[in-house]
Specification:
The protein is an alpha/beta fold and 243 residues long. The chain is 47% helix and 11% strand. The chain has helices at 6-14, 27-32, 47-50, 67-78, 90-106, 111-121, 131-139, 152-157, 193-204, 216-242, and strands spanning 20-23, 40-41, 59-62, 84-86, 145-148, 165-166, 185-188, 210-213. The radius of gyration is 20 Å and the shape is elongated. This is Rhodanese domain-containing protein.
Length: 243
């Protein structure tokens, strides 16, 4: 079962639900490094028997490196909890909740609008940048940069695309120099909201063309399309020169 995303948690928070944080490390681990304030501590060995201690609603579950959190997350999802996001450790859990709360404050679109953005986002960004725009730059010898703005916990759960630059959306402004400025950029997250925000930041700093899309799978398709269009464009230019 797949882990939820920051956007899923943010939507739940926006709807008035409270996020529960569950720490499934052992008693000894918690004694050495206490749980985050307000967390529910249930060792993974006792989790199935004590799952009822977790309030129904959105949940962030963590351990120390992520494996036990994955098991607990699957158990919660199987028991009907949603959304449930499993992350690596207590720091990732704290940052995840903070980011979800911050994002919840910025969600203004009704659900229908969010769905529309997700559908259109795979082919077009908020400023109408398309895969053809990216391909035109690539055909001129520019390298396409891929930027993954999901949280560290999400990346740990599902790795970034090969060659992608992973920068959590809240750090894009401060780490913008890590993104090459002399070429096209494709930004993705898990549902499109954070990617759109990050793309806006990049454009405000003079990057372009910049395209945002909804998720990893959509980014893969766009990359393939860009490569195909760029190759066709380069071939056409070469043929014109020989005529």
């Amino acid at each position: 079962m797949s882990s939820a995303t920051i956007e899923d948690l943010a939507k739940a928070i926006k709807a008035g639900e409270k996020v529960s944080v569950v720490d499934v490390r052992s008693d000894d681990e918690v004694k050495e490094k206490p749980s985050n304030p307000g967390s529910i501590h249930i060792p993974i060995a006792e989790f199935n028997d004590r799952i009822s201690e977790v309030p129904k609603g959105p949940v962030v579950v963590h351990c120390a490196i992520g494996k036990r959190a994955q098991r607990a997350g699957d158990a919660l999802r199987a028991a009907g909890y949603a959304p449930v996001m499993n992350v690596t450790d207590r720091d990732a859990a704290r940052k995840t909740v903070e980011e979800a709360k911050e994002l919840a404050q910025k969600i203004l679109l009704p659900l229908v609008g969010v769905i529309a953005v997700a559908v259109m986002g795979s082919m077009m960004s908020s400023d109408s940048t398309t895969s053809a725009d990216l391909a035109a730059a690539v055909a001129k010898g520019k390298k396409l940069s891929i930027v993954d703005v999901r949280s560290a916990g999400e990346v740990a759960s599902k790795a970034s695309l090969p060659g992608a630059i992973a920068i959590p959306v809240g750090e894009v402004e401060s780490r913008i120099s890590e993104v090459p400025k002399d070429g096209p950029v494709l930004v993705y997250c898990a549902s499109g909201i954070r990617a759109g925000r990050a793309a806006g930041v990049l454009r405000s700093h003079g990057y372009g063309p910049v395209m945002s899309t909804v998720n990893c799978d959509s980014a893969k398709k766009i990359i393939d399309e860009v490569e195909k269009l760029a190759k066709e464009g380069a071939t056409a230019v070469s043929e014109e020169k020989t005529q």
